[in-house]
Amino acid sequence: GMHWAVGVVDFKDRGFRYLDSMFGSPHRNFVRFLRRYVNDEHRSKHGMPLEDIHSWDMLEEPLGVPQQRNGFDCGVFTCGFAEYLVSGRTRLFGQADMPTLRKRLAARIIRADEMWDDT
User: Of 17, 28, 66, 88, which cross-links 8 as Cys (Cβ 3.0–4.6 Å)?
Assistant: First the structure.
């Protein structure tokens, strides 16, 4: 089957994040692949390698990563992770919030509206 997770290049904290609601750690080549990708993109745009890219590593999630308790909510968790990352909000959701997050996602798709609130 398929499984969704979020990989993040964090330029502010100069490292990588991996948010996975089912499995704790990324593929063993995750950091190596993202270092190369970021460096290749930087080189193509700026004509030189990104300084200190080899020191970039996995960043800890201070609040941990919420975990799903079934085999089918990974997509909703993944969308929730992405939403909170781009908004800068603290992730305060878990398995019990999936029905609400699912409805919010459906409403946003139907309305084609990127705005959302926490009510």
Answer: 17
Q: What is the CB-side half-sphere exposure of residue 16 using CA atoms within 13 A?
A: 22
Q: Where in the sequence numbering do the catalytic residues fall?
A: 3, 20, 74
Question: What are the structure tokens assigned to 4, written together?
Answer: 């969704």
Kindly state the tokens that stand for 102: 């699912």
- Block means of pLDDT (10 residues each) for the chain, 119 residues, are 93 96 93 98 98 96 92 95 87 92 91 65
- Tell me how many degrees the CA angle 70-79-32 measures, rounded to the nearest 5: 95
**What is d(CA 67, CA 92) in angstroms, rounded to the nearest whole number?**
12
| Beta-sheet strands, E only, within 42-98 | none
